[in-house]
């Protein structure tokens, strides 16, 4: 996987949407009707060229890493340990309205933490924000963490104060702490968790391991090959990280879920496993309308475009978080892909100076989501 390339095609038999559907083991970073950005090894690229795709090298992975994965870039981000420290400190600063809970443990036995915000346990309406199912998406830790901090520091002013007196807001910024730690210390572009698979390869994709339509696709973006970046795992909820989320959601029965990822600037709603839209027209319209509204709110802050669309329009996957939360519980659920828009702006490796503006543009959206769900 030493090259990052742009893939295009003018041939109908090599259409871009077919790219995800081939079992080549590519690491697909971007996919539209016109192009894809993938990380791949030379042998994989030769096969693509034989099929009629045009390959343009963007950068060697190593050069990309030395450009973007600098010490300075890493310095503003949490590690699993500093996140725990800061979440604990927040809970201690606001003991009346915040509590830290361990919702489970990872493969390597790291605690997975959530902050429960709200005056009372057992409120009827609850909302969950999650981050960092994917190890290399560090920004997806920071946005939900800063959101928790924002809600607490604004907890005496309305509407936040009303929200926290009538409902609970749960925030779990790092669902995949082992993967994140591996990305931080060893392999910056690591994506999966740190499970040792039956064939000795490492990692299951937590965002393919949920139990709705699990395993129904076997393609590059949702793979049954353990070595692949999107390995679905041996069965639904085989991983302790997804079981932690399953147990939290099964217990708290949230009325809304947002899970943060990066990158591409997208607001995605179910379905991911099929290109068909959700059958229930009221649900479909509500989620599509809310996604569009959230995208407008984001643009108003710093002018960034986040495209609202059905998940499978990005690419089909089976077993992702929001298909499960909506498919099993009917929860309005969104995947937000944060900054940047393209690989050449850093892709998964965004300078720490962009944490704050990304958070700022996502705050009105999170607040609008909370307001929409609570009404
Ligand atoms: O592939 C994923 O899990 C998400 N993209 S990421 O680049 N953060 O890995 C997208 C999940 C949304 N679901 C579907 N596209 N079906
Ligand atoms: Zn992701």
Walkthrough of the structure:
This protein is of the alpha/beta class. It folds into 2 domains: 2-68, Alpha-Beta Plaits; 74-184 and 220-374, 3-Layer(aba) Sandwich (Aminopeptidase). Helix content is 37%, strand content 19%. It contains 13 helices and 12 strands. It has helices spanning 16-19, 42-50, 61-68, 71-75, 80-93, 139-153, 160-166, 177-185, 240-252, 281-302, 311-314, 321-329, 355-374; strands at 3-8, 27-31, 36-40, 54-60, 98-105, 111-117, 125-131, 167-172, 256-262, 266-269, 307-310, 333-338. Strands 5-6-8-7-9-12-10-11 form an 8-stranded mixed β-sheet, sandwiched between helices. A 4-stranded antiparallel β-sheet has the order 2-3-1-4. Helix 10 links the parallel strand 10 and strand 11 (307-310). Helix 6 (139-153) crosses helix 13 (355-374). The longest helix is centred in the last third of the chain and has 22 residues, at 281-302. It is globular and about 60 Å long. The chain starts with a strand and ends with a helix. The mean pLDDT is 96. Bound molecules: N~2~-sulfamoyl-L-arginine and zinc ion.
